[in-house]
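Hi V.,

You were right to ask for the full record rather than a summary. Here it is.
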Amino acid sequence: MRLLLLLTMVLCATAAAQTVYRYQDANGRWHFTDRKPKENHETLQIGSSTPVAQLPQLVYQLQDDGSQRLMSVNPWLTPVQFEIRQGDKRIADWVVESRDDSPVLLNGKPLEWRDNYEYHYRLGRPVAKSDLQPLQPPIPPRGRFRISQGFNGHYSHAEEPARHAVDIVMQVGEGVHAAREGLVVAVKDDYHMGGTDRFFIDKANYVRVLHRDDTFAIYAHILLGSAVVKEGDRVKAGDLLASAGTSGYSTGPHLHFVIQRNDGQSVVSEPFRFQLGREVFPPIAGQWLTRE
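Predicted structure:
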């Protein structure tokens, strides 16, 4: 019996390298791009020893009688919702638990793949809303830190899944701490550059933590090589996760923090409140978070 892949490939390289071009415009501003520019430029080779993550996917197995057996495979530590659509029509959707696979069924019978089908997957089990409990600010146990961008911030928080994110100004190397207990399900800390070019949009380092209400916290822009946790670790509120940095799409050193959930249609951000001592409050741009 052969195993064939549908629409996507398993990526399992142990090392990766990328060619990046850097050039300076007439105003002296540096730009980075993965497409060779017409301007005079420098060529950079950026390498990484971090394995490329495997992705959730659909596969099919050809049976001895020539029929297909469609399977959904989830290599992640989190549940994943799969969905098959035919244009605007949803044919089927189902959840595959962490590091598991499942046959694809429709009305209890195996689903045969068609050429006009397409599939998607979303991180997490669908949930209506979070438990809305107040969160411990993800800052060090001592210090004063300003929220530079709050919910619906016009710079980069105007759209989902970052509408209810906050940016907290932190110096490079300052500790990023867990806002609530959970399971570490993803860690990326292999990238060293940052900037405001679109090139950096998907380059940020981060730690992702799954909570008991099926929401996720993302702690982004962390410093290269600074994560002190790994996938599968359980953390408590206040535990050190990594160090602040400016990796990815960033104007300067800060922590981008957001709570997200799968609402069954897409991944959305969830509004939250912080708690310091007995005070519970929504995060607002310009606000200072102080611990002594």
